[in-house]
Amino acid sequence: MAKTKKHPISTLRALAIFCVITLLYFGIHLVANLYNPVETVAAAKISVDDSLSVTGCFIRDEQIVKITNGDTVEYSVSNGDKVAKGAELATVYEDPEALETSRTLREITDTVTQLRAAIQSNSTAMDSSKLDKQIIDSIASVSRAVDSGNLSEIPRLSSELRKNAVRRGYSSGDTEKMNAQLEELESQASALESSVIGKTKQINSEYSGYFCESLDGYENKFKASEIDDLTLSDLKAEPEETDSGDSPFSSVKIIQGSEWYFAAEISDEEAERFENVETVNLRFAQLSEDVPASVYRVSDDPDSDKTLLVLKSLTFNEELVGMRVQGADIIFASYTGLKVPKEAVHMRDNGDGTSTMGVYVMVNSMTAFKKIETLYEDQSFYIVKMNVTGDDSLVLHDDIVVSAKDLDEKKVFK
């Protein structure tokens, strides 16, 4: 039987067809990969406040104190100082000379006090190098107190600094000279005291509270004791005119107690956010810390789509003294976790009628599903619980797959 001989052309044709099919196969996969790019984003830590921005008005119980106006008035307290009932607020002098004499007397009296302390401690020998070190330490302490805002410590630290400076002005063996200087200063102080007798008048506070050196026109318009009667129309009323520059009096005020209210106009839609809310935090740009407050009133205005919001706080300090009409952020809650884009979130069927919320992440070019627990929802992203460890939960720096075609678990992307 004769054998059939293959034609070389047929063999080449079959080889060509095989090559074309192979090229088509790899070409299709190449095109699929080119048109199926994987977009990822790293899971990053983020903190977000659930807040509402408002402009409101401080309402407190305040008492106006009138003090003679002019260049011969010297205040004994500063803005924000807490004063007791009967405490000296200011001294009114008969003329400018009496004012200048009083200031000189105060300087001498202060020096006398420091000199007495230096003489008393001079019995303990101390060389100049140790005093120099104490002075340097005192200066550093005053500087730290100023930087940290701990102003209540400055008088004590300054007094210690002055005492060491006076001691440094004398050697340890100059006690006799220090006593002679003290006697001379006491004599000068006595003469100055005699010269101002009958030329001064003290203004004392009839109330206890926080001293404020200026008025804003709301002192008689709003009262904390009348907060239950406050309306939106009241809140919008213009402040009263304060004393003009031609007035013979300069008015100051005493803010009584630590209880105050913050009233603001909000929309009816915003008012719904306060349902079942008892406490919030108020954040003011001028303050370093948030102020806790309770929700006191949420009163709908029947004549408009606005609502009166009144918050109450028992936290008060010198920083709040000068604040009246003020912008603030009302903080309902604060959340810290991992930021996840909404488009990256998927629901995986568990096969038992339930599903698990999660994201796909890239691990060595392969996808893996990790579950998430949402804490906060924004328009475009979630904040989810930040896990420390766990193969099935999202952790910091995981590469979250935001978009990819035919996404599935354990799919390889190259």
Concise description?
This protein has seven helices and 18 strands.
Element layout with pairings:
Layout: H1 8-34, E1 39-42, E2 44-68, E3 73-75, E4 82-83, E5 88-93, H2 96-121, H3 128-148, H4 154-168, H5 175-195, E6 200-204, E7 209-212, H6 232-235, E8 249-267, H7 268-271, E9 279-283, E10 291-300, E11 306-313, E12 325-341, E13 345-349, E14 355-363, E15 366-371, E16 374-377, E17 381-384, E18 399-403
Antiparallel strand pairs: 1-18, 2-8, 2-12, 3-5, 4-7, 5-6, 7-8, 8-11, 9-10, 9-12, 10-11, 12-17, 13-14, 14-15, 16-17
Helix pairs in contact: 2-4, 2-5, 3-4
Describe the protein in words:
The protein is of the alpha+beta class. Helices cover 29% and strands 34% of the residues. It is built from 7 helices and 18 strands. It has helices at residues 8-34, 96-121, 128-148, 154-168, 175-195, 232-235, 268-271; strands spanning 39-42, 44-68, 73-75, 82-83, 88-93, 200-204, 209-212, 249-267, 279-283, 291-300, 306-313, 325-341, 345-349, 355-363, 366-371, 374-377, 381-384, 399-403. The protein has a 6-stranded antiparallel β-barrel. A hairpin with a 2-residue loop joins strand 14 (355-363) and strand 15. The two termini are 56 Å apart. 16% of the residues are buried.
